[in-house]
Amino acid sequence: MGGGLMQLVAYGAQDLYLTGNPQITFWKNLYRRHTNAAMESIEATFTGSADFGKRVNCPISRMGDLAHKMYVKIKLPQVTITGPAVGTAEFRWLDHIGHVLLKAVDIEIGGQRIDRHYSEWYHIYNQLNLPTGLKDGYNRMIGNIPELTELKVVKAQETLTIPSYTLWVPLQFWFNRNPGLALPLIALQYHEVRITVDFRDKEECYYFNQQTNQKNGSITMGSLDASLYIDYVYLDTDERKKFAQAAHEYLVEQLQYTGEESLQGSQGKVKLSLNHPVKELIWVLQKDEWLTNTGAKVVVPTSATSPGTPGVQVNVTPPYDQDQLINYYKGRQHFNFTTDWDDKYIDNLFFTSNVDVTTAIVGETVRSQNASVPRTVRGNPLVRCRLQLNSQDRLNEREGSYFDLVQPYQHHDNVPAERGINIYSFALRPADQQPSGSCNFSRIDNATIILSTPDKYQGKIKVFAVNYNVIRVISGIIEPTLQSLYQNQTVRPDRIELNLPNVFRRDNSTFTASDVARFAGLPYVAVHRINDVGPISKFAPTLSRYASKPKTIIIVVDDDTLYPPDLVERLVAGATQHPEAIVTAHCTNHYTLNDTPCDLVEGFKSYLLRPAHFRPSFWAFLAAALESDECYRADDFVLSAYIHTAKVPLLRLDAPAPLKTPQLSYGFEGDALHRQQPLEDPQTRYCGCFLHLQEKLPVSLGLRARCAQTQFEH
């Protein structure tokens, strides 16, 4: 018997836990078929000038059905450095220049900002999550390469040109990272989606210095050239239709930033104003001098009469002659969250001429040759820290190394090589989209980080929180109408009431629970389930609900029309001036420029009424009218017939121009809530309803029809 067969027969009770009733095999490959789709990267342009210090935006066109990954492409300008008449000039782009340039990036949907990311966040996120195998390529994408960041020294009266370089900075919003969360543009066809970018000021992106008193050297550079590359996804016909018509609910990640707060001394307390279930807190400390020229630390000679000899560190504060010392840090350090300077670019750590030193703080002695300068061991400025929730310790005080070493090791793929990125995770795997833990800060009245720093510390603390949120994308059907009636109005209604039939008389269809939930999820919408009485269902049940409040203003609209932002304001003003009348923005009559009595109200343009306008006899009138299928489908004609019978004034409001109410793609006799099913020509319905009312109801309508010509006149 072979050794392999011996292994097979060596089978006992313990093996039942491993191979008893097997559920998988390693010897048969399985796969699942996927829906047909294609992806294409398309360049989009920013509106305005995408340059240093500018705020520009890029509307996301609907060239595809979904939007997935996005990259900001930035072409750094060519730089020409001219040396001074005497001395030298130095220039370099700052480290991680791609991150530095993107001061802030927003994603907006329908004019509402959904998320915002910052320069610091791009750096922190990649320090924690970027796979090791991608780091070299990513550094080339964002310009963190020697060709850009190494100091270029130009001698007197010489010229050096640094060529332009193209950066590709990937955005990190929820839909960029996970294809299953790709932005459903096909379901947002009536919302504008926009990416807005704040570019950092030019002077904050590079280092330039002249080692001379004359300061007649210069640098010349052009403007940035930036655009946005979007990976569009094209769906096959069936899936595209589902995305367009169905409601979507996404569990997304958002970034909260509390803003920077000042720290002075060795103790600090930071109050966290956060909301939503938070899965991770990240905070960094940064000395003020890392971003300014004040308090620059230099190395001076031990003897003021012997420049160039080994020296000791001192803190020099303005005023001082910068031309007589070598700038220590060679530019702002936007992402230095440690206790000391990044000495990567230390250059000749001594004064270039004799300087009187009045105050010296003994520090590390260094050699005068740059190549021999030891790299500073930069530590975490967070000495100790604890987290309190509702004045109770959520986490006992711990050393700073627990937050920038142990926590990243435990919860992320990387422990950042650079110290000072402090995290505390409420989730097992905070970088994964699958939830694995969170703390609901919406239910926390007060949250505080209490920390200690080195003595005489002066700087800022920045706290970020990654939270979960649910974004509901109601299908393009009806939701644009709701937005135009509430969010876009100059005077907002108290609420919007939707009367949804339990079963449609037309085709016996119904709304599913998810259909109802998607409407009820909007805070300004009240959903009522009713018996279907045709299109007049949109206001008759509401009229009944407010019968005891006769002065209540009810504005009736269609569900397949976009309404202007002054609609509510205009109708309410008209009703205030004419409380006895039902007022409308449009009805069948010749157009004039004053408040005009008219005959046939038309709901797609909207009208305003009050319960006081209707007598109790209205319900008997309605029941008799709805015995006719033509009247069941002709709500405008039935309402107009009753208005004239009850002698209620019907006024079209004074208007300087016709009311513009564009109908949506499913509009005009194909309404949204009633499954987009078209009806026959309205005048045919009106004629049939007129004949029914004339025959069945002993009322004078004040209207008569010429059915053969399907025309109406007063």
UniProtKB/TrEMBL annotation:
GO molecular function per UniProt: structural molecule activity
Superkingdom of this protein's organism: Eukaryota
Residue ranges of every copy of the Major capsid protein C-terminal domain listed in the record: 239-477
InterPro entries: Capsid_N (IPR031654), MCP_C (IPR007542), MCP_C_sf (IPR038519), Nucleotide-diphossugar_trans (IPR029044), VP_dsDNA_II (IPR016112)
Annotated Major capsid protein N-terminal domain residues: 25-236
Pfam families tied to this protein: Capsid_N, Capsid_NCLDV
Coiled-coil region: none
Protein name as annotated: Uncharacterized protein
Record organism: Chlamydomonas incerta
Taxonomic placement: Eukaryota, Viridiplantae, Chlorophyta, core chlorophytes, Chlorophyceae
